[in-house]
Amino acid sequence: MHSIAQWFPQGWRHFLFGGICIGLGVSLLFALTGFIGGISSTYSAAWSWLTTYPYFHREALVSKRGWLMMYALGLIAGAIVFTFTLGHGHAFITRVPLWQLFAGGILAGFGARMSGGCTSGHGICGVASHQLPSILAVIIFLTTAILTAHLVRALGGF
Amino acid sequence: MPAASNTPASNSRAVLLSALAAGTLFGFGLALSTMVQPEVILQFLLLNNMGLLLVLGGAAGTTAIAYALLPRLMQRPVFAPDFKKHASVLNAPTLIGAAIFGIGWGLSGVCPGPAIAGLGVGNWPLFLSVAGLLLGAWLHGRFVAKA
Fold first, then answer.
1. Were B54 and a residue from A7, A16, A135, B87 both cysteine, which residue would form a disulfide, CB within 3.0 to 4.6 Å?
2. pTM of the entire predicted model
3. Long-range contacts of B83-86 (CB under 8 A, 24+ apart)
4. How far off is chain B from A1, nearest CA to CA, in Å?
5. Interval A76-94: pLDDT, tens
6. What is the Cα gyration radius of chain B?
């Protein structure tokens, strides 16, 4: 029989507690403002300041761009707080090749906006409110992500 | 001249500070759970480390409790008139978009939240992911979405 520990070679507590902390953030947003705390629309809302193209000025984006930017600022602030408390001041710098970070970002940004959600919008908020389309989206993006990661590794990528 | 807005409630100082506080908890959780390290995401996607399932489960489980209970316990959110609902639609863009999102996520190990939060742990190469995510969102809004 396999030990459960082999599935968690780096331990499990920080994953679970970190996840609960993320959930508490989304819950706090809901309790105070009633908003649903997905992240990906932040990237479209940001363009409302930078272009005049009509899509980026629709009410649905402009009305929430203010709090979305503060939410995004909070993401950075929270990670800084972690770094200087539990993180003991250590930075983490990824070794994933820059082209993968950039090209993956383009695809992820395009796909998340087309889909209307990402790991947070569909994966956390959609699943938490039992939305069937979100649950299907999660199953699909987990599948394509697992296939892609294996393919990239097989082809000699990171 | 102040920015015109039909929804002043969504931009009140209290709402903006609430979003900052909520985002801070979210970002702390992303850093604690090592989701700001693309290597950890890729190890999950290569099926070597199931930690991400605990993160997603812990986050979705906690949020599910809040989404179910808060509207019953409170008449309205503290600083806003009503609780919103997550409205995802069952159509082709939702599913095709998810497939494309997964390809990008599997290539980079970076998704929209950790790309931003990662900057807070000094993971500067993620600036390129943020730039890519912005470009992807622009391509979608400019060429695919209905204006």
1. A16
2. 0.94
3. B83/A30, B83/A34, B84/A34, B84/A35, B84/A36, B85/A36, B85/A129, B86/A36, B86/A38, B86/A121, B86/A125, B86/A126, B86/A128, B86/A129, B86/A131, B86/A134
4. 17
5. 999 999 999 999 999 999 9
6. 18
At which residue do the structure tokens 């503060």 appear? Answer: A70
- A51: nearest CA partner in chain B: B138
Whether residue A17 and residue B84 make contact (CB cut-off 8 A), yes or no, is no
Arithmetic mean of pLDDT over chain A: 95
Q: Is the dihedral of CA A33, A39, A41, A42 positive or negative?
A: positive
Instruction: Check whether A5 has a pLDDT greater than 70.
Output: yes
Give me the residues of A, 52-111, that contact B with CB < 8 A.
53-56, 58-59, 62-64, 66-68, 70-83, 86-87, 91-96, 98, 100-111
Contacting residues for A18 by C-beta, under 8 A, at least 6 apart: B29, B30, B31, B32, B33, B34, B35, B55, B58
Do residues A115 and A26 make contact, with C-beta atoms less than 8 angstroms apart?
no
With beta carbons less than 8 A apart as the criterion, state whether B117 and B45 touch.
no
Per-chain mean pLDDT for chain B: 93
Question: Cβ of B79 and A32 within 8 Å?
Answer: yes
C-alpha distance from A61 to closest chain B C-alpha (Å): 11
Answer whether residue B90 shows pLDDT above 50: yes
Task: Give the number of A-B residue pairs with CB atoms closer than 8 Å.
Answer: 558
Distance (Å, rounded) from C-alpha A60 to C-alpha A35? 13
**Alpha-carbon gap: A8 to the closest alpha carbon of chain B (Å):** 5
Which is higher by pLDDT, B9 or B130? Answer: B130
Determine the average pLDDT of the residues in A99-104.
98
Q: Is pLDDT above 60 for B128?
A: yes
